[in-house]
Amino acid sequence: MERFKRPLQLAGQDRADLAEVVTEISADGFESLPRVADGSIEYSQTRVIDVPADVFERRRVVTGRSQDPVTNAYKLLRTQVSQRLQARGWQTVAIVSPAAGEGKTLTAINLAINLANTRSHTALLVDLDWRQPSVHTYFDYTPTHDVYDYLRGQQSLADVLVNPGLPRFCFLPCREPVAEAPEHLGDLGALVQELKSRYSNRTVLFDLPPLFATDDAISFLPFVDCALLVVEEGRTNRHDVVRSIDLIGEDKLLGTVLNKSWHRPPRY
Fold first, then answer.
1. H or E stretch at 19
2. pTM as predicted
3. CB contact at 8 A, 4 and 245
4. pLDDT digit string, tens, across residues 48-86
5. For domain 16-259, is the CATH number 2.60.40.10?
6. Cβ–Cβ < 8 Å for 197, 224
7. Strand 92-96 relative to strand 202-207: parallel, antiparallel, unpaired?
8. Which tops the pLDDT comparison, 126 or 189?
9. d(Cα 194, Cα 135) in Å, to the nearest integer?
10. Who's near 249: CB < 8 A, 6+ residues apart?
11. Helices and strands, number each (H, E), in the chain
């Protein structure tokens, strides 16, 4: 357990037993992307939606435009994730948690947005939590089409991708729960390869179902380079963290984020 030491503090109170096994590791359109002088991207095919600033604030979406402690924490997470990905030549990251409600999806959104804020990379977040998809709700957006319309051959990726008005970031929504999702795992593998191969400077993140809910997330992990485990202070116990790491495999584990742990000194 030597590599699982210091928690990234994202938001609560100390819990030594969990901290012992938690490590601190702290999108653009599917098209030709013209860039302008400041490093931004002008989208010609991807759907661009207007998300009011109050929606970002209400949904706790961190756009990186302020210097508050939460924003700085996500910037730290962004930097450490980016460094580890670059060191290993990795490009695809699964975002997982032991159970539902531990902050997995919001962490995935905020990490992706902050990765895109580096200007040297774009970020794409794919909602594959087909049991309880919710990425689109953080932008107050109801998608007309989604990732499974693409997998079924009913829509092109350009028709499904969404840019919420943030530079170099897009998400691929899942509109509603999909009961037959495991039957599409082969298609999902092809999707990962296609998203990965289009742009060398793109980081692709996948929001997956909770690890303990079904075997869906574990079945998907072989398709990606690594996984980021999100656990919640005061909710996820030590046993669940250890079990999750065992399910993911230490060779596949990028790191662990301790969510809702704020205003306490780091523990080594």
1. helix 16-19
2. 0.83
3. yes
4. 999 999 999 999 999 877 778 888 999 999 999 999 999
5. no
6. no
7. parallel
8. 126
9. 21
10. 221
11. 9, 8
